[in-house]
Amino acid sequence: MDKEHLLTTKLIIDGHFHDFQLYSGKFYLWMNQKELNVYDWNKWMKQLVDVDRPIYLEPQPSEQISVTIEELIPFLERTISFSEPIYDCAIFNHILYFSDDNGFYRYSLTKNNAQKERIWDQAVYSISLSAKGRMALSAGESGLFEYLLSSHYLYDQLDRQKAPRIYQLNAHFASQATWNHHDLIQYGKSQSNPTYLTQFNEQKGQLHIVDVLPVTQLSGSLTSQVQEYLLPLSLNPPSMKDGLLFSFEMDHQKVKKDSLYRSKTIRLVVKPPAVLEQQQDSIDFLLVMADSPSFKVVLQNDVLLEIPHHSIQKFRIYNRTRHYRNQLHVLQNNSLILYLFTEINR
Questions:
Q1: DSSP 77-100
Q2: Which of 10, 8, 6, 3 lies closest to 332, judged by CA?
Q3: CA-to-CA distance for 10 and 249, rounded, in angstroms?
Q4: Which segment of 122-131, 167-176, 212-221, 294-303 scores lowest on mean pLDDT?
Q5: How far is 47 from 39, CA to CA, in rounded Å?
Q6: Is 34 helix (H, G, I), strand (E, B) or coil?
Q7: 88 vs 19: CA distance, rounded Å
Q8: Can you spell out the DSSP letters for 190-209?
Q9: What CA–CA distances, in Å, run from 119 to 5, 66, 168, 171, 270?
Q10: Domain count, the chain
Q11: Is the pLDDT reported for residue 127 higher than 90?
């Protein structure tokens, strides 16, 4: 894969939003902490074929589309309202898991008359779902927990169980956590610096906590394999009037691309903190460098995208899916930006 055959489509949804999810052909957009809109993602993507816009061929091909929330009304399927403001949410097996000040809940997205079911009476501030189907719950001062989503996993340390299917991993302050295979990288009151690494032994679904280590006690950090590109590329479309070298608009040529912006070979992965990084071949991945001085997406040592950290409220990639793992969604103060990386032939 090279960047000359990697099309970056930038979809900008103007407005103020709380959260977002893409799952099984549905786009879930939290208009605020109490109102969730559900859109038909595939119908929206098919409509984009008829939207007239140029594709710019620079060192990296790109296109950009801006929409308002009113323009998404034809794709709106339903709105779900909640009585209390939510903190965080995740979707697994067509079930919405979410938390508010009164506890941690589940809500079926397939039942017509679904009601929220409280799983636990503990407030959870961050929910992290792994590619292997595990869910971490960060509960602030109460510590870090795991909710067993299915019968595939079980713990042999029963003394850690705090509620049905909920196990305490450690009692250190947890504002959020990210998965590194079966291990968990934990963050304290500062969400920019990791504080603990919880290490697991997993054998055929049986889980055992091996150790909880402060990151300061880990062996020397490994040097990052990713070198910064000296001239970060902007995704703002250039214009012929700008006089930029090597930028031009395609008027007559056609670029072949997937109509639903899917790509089987492109995959986004989050680069772990340097202190936890392992030597691995990442040439086929788009690396999301969330802990670098600025937020970056890198392909083979070239920076494809660079965003100032202070402008990002939240981001998501979809590494558990087959069709959406080529997408990066970034929530900013005044907009939600969807970056879709797809292959093209030209």
A1: EEEEE-SS-EEEEEEETTEEEEEE
A2: 10
A3: 16
A4: 212-221
A5: 13
A6: coil
A7: 8
A8: -TTSEEEEEEEEEETTEEEE
A9: 46, 39, 15, 20, 30
A10: 1
A11: yes
Contact between 341 and 7 (Cβ < 8 Å): yes
**107 Cβ contact partners less than 8 Å away, ≥ 6 residues apart:** 80, 95, 96, 97, 98, 114, 115, 116, 117
Contact present, 22 and 318 (Cβ < 8 Å)? yes
Token pair belonging to 286? 């788009």
Candidate from 52-66, 91-105, 274-288 with smallest mean pLDDT: 274-288
For the chain, how many helices (H) and strands (E)? 1, 27
Q: Give the domain CATH number at 159.
A: 2.130.10
Reported confidence tier of residue 252, pLDDT bands at 50, 70, 90: very low
Pairing of strands 154-155, 95-100: unpaired
Q: Is the pLDDT of residue 238 over 90?
A: no
Residue 191, phi then psi, degrees to nearest 5: -85, 5
Q: Which residues contact 160 (CB under 8 A, 6 or more apart)?
A: 167, 168, 169, 209
pLDDT, averaged across the chain: 85
**Two structure tokens written together for 228:** 């910064």
DSSP secondary structure code for residue 225 in this structure: S
- Residue tagged 């691309």 (tokens): 257
Q: Does residue 298 come out as left (phi exceeding 0), alpha (psi in the -120 to 50 range) or beta?
A: beta
Give residue 77's domain range: 3-343
**Residue 126 scores a pLDDT above 50:** yes
pLDDT (tens digit per residue) in 147-182: 999 899 999 899 999 999 999 999 999 999 999 889
What integer pLDDT is reported at residue 173 of this predicted model? Answer: 96
Residues 6+ apart with CB under 8 A from 188: 172, 173, 174, 175, 195, 196
| Residue type at 124 in one-letter notation | V
pLDDT score at 237: 45
First to last CA, the chain: 14
How many residues are present in the chain?
346
By DSSP bridging, strand 267-270 and strand 285-289 are: parallel
